[in-house]
Amino acid sequence: MSFWDLWQQSFMQHALLATVLVSVACGVIGALVVVNRLVFMAGGIAHTAYGGVGLAIYSGLPVLPVAGAFTAAAAFLLGVLTRTRRERTDTLIGVIWAGGMAFGIILINLTPGYNVGLMSYLFGSLLTVPADDLWLMFGIDLVIVSLTLYFYQELLSFSFDADFAQSRGIAVRGLYFMLLIMVAEAVVMMIQVVGLILVIALLTLPPYLAERHTKTLFGLIIGSGLWSLLFCFIGLWAAYQFDLSSGASIIAVACITYLLYLAGESVWRHLVPTKVQA
Question: What angle do CA 200, 203, 251 make, to 5 degrees?
Answer without folding.
Answer: 70
